[in-house]
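Morning!

This is the sequence you dropped in the shared folder:
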Amino acid sequence: MALTAVRRRMSVLRNLWKSESAGGLALMGTAALALVVANSPFAATYFALLQVKAGPLSLQHWINDGLMAVFFLFVGLEIKRELADGELSSWRRRILPGIAAAGGMIVPALIFVAFTVSSPGLVRGWAIPTATDIAFAIAVLALLRSAVPVSLAIFLTAVAVIDDLAAVIVIALFYTAELQALWIAAAALVVGALAVLNRFGIERLAVYLAAGFALWFCVLQSGVHATLAGVALAFTIPLRPSPGRPEDPHSPLHRLEHALNPYVAFLVVPLFGFANAGVSFSGSGVSALFHPLTLACAAGLFFGKQIGVFGSVWLAVRFGLAARPLGARWPQIFGVAILCGIGFTMSLFIGLLAFPADPALMDAVKIGVLAGSLASSTLGVIVLLMARRRRPDERAQRRAAG
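The structure's back. Tokens below.
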């Protein structure tokens, strides 16, 4: 009976990820297009268009702070469902993504500091390689969904969300010039009101979404990254799981999750990629590849993330603090740990905050982040594909031994 319930949950998750696979292709295409355009005769038009004001925000800010809040809402809904009755429903499974995210932040930061300790002015960017780009990492894994168990997709999602939330806290503590206490208090009040609605059994999604817009506006004004509002809203959406019906399709959470899925996969994430992947390489010589800041960013993402995430997972399982994701083998976990080194957008964002007045240092950050993210995505894909190819041989060996 328990096995049937697990298979039912995995089937639902696989259906959700079908469109994300195609959406991942759209993301890769738009990101590649942005890189081409940013280094073409149309570069000036591209960058100027992103800065066009539409009300109080530029077009790029509407995408990063507005549309991406919808993406984080979608991810938060997935995480809440798994926490309630899924791969993260037990403490042993909840603790693993948290440990992995912690290791995936500490080790990259230490590597970054090791590369920049002789240049004190550069140490300020220590948080650049600590962030995982959830959109790109999940998109890559979605393209390889047949090579990994669904539990690892959930694990990566959880790690990336925890990682990005931690990055937001880091930004607030170390890179935010001024926090607006009144707006933070207003956001807390909205979250409290949403929790009360949930507590009293209010299930009309329109009410939650209207309050969610108010929450997003408060967070935007507070100085904290606005995407945090999406996750906070997700955890207040009613799930009401019932015995024997953990995947109730009529639950408000499930209805919202299924409604958002195609828009997130084919609109939000591709637009996000196009708006943020455009990096101009004009004026960047070969020497920029060996700049201490470039090497620190690239090494932190590529080596730091895989060592930190995989090492912390191995230690947690070895000492009995957590269990491996269901059906996942160590080579697959290692492949996913490598994918956590796709930093990209959040890393670039932190770089802008760390070195706002130095274009040369920002060029070094961009090159390092792109190099580390590209290397991580390439090696991660290779490792996961190799792990899948070995699986039939392992089964044959077990049958022969039996």
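Headline: The beta strands are 53-54, 57-58.

More detail when I'm at my desk.
O.
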